[in-house]
Write a structure and sequence with these properties.
Length: 92
């Protein structure tokens, strides 16, 4: 179940298969590196960390340039949606 913007209402309903299906709808084929980012985002969300592009770039998983390459057209917004977490406050 998703909200009007397409974000999961309950992040516990997320599965890697669901992420793959959602990614296909935005033209992304998920790789292991994508899943490293998605899992990091999910972990930070559970910790209550306010997510920003800069924090992802400082995660040690990807730099900002690579983050944009993995999730073109709005990396934090798209990756959050694919990770099954709420849209970050920093996203418009």
């Amino acid at each position: 179940e998703v909200n009007a913007e397409g974000y999961l209402k309950n992040m516990d309903q997320w599965t890697p298969e669901l992420a793959r299906e959602m990614a296909t709808s935005v033209g992304i084929e998920l790789t292991e590196k994508h899943f490293e980012v998605l899992n990091w985002l999910r972990a930070k969300q559970k910790e209550g960390v306010a997510l920003t592009i800069r924090k992802v770039g400082n995660s040690g998983i990807v730099d900002i340039k690579t983050f944009y390459q993995l999730f073109p057209g709005g990396p934090l917004k798209i990756s959050s949606k694919l990770a099954g977490i709420p849209k970050p406050v920093s996203c418009i």
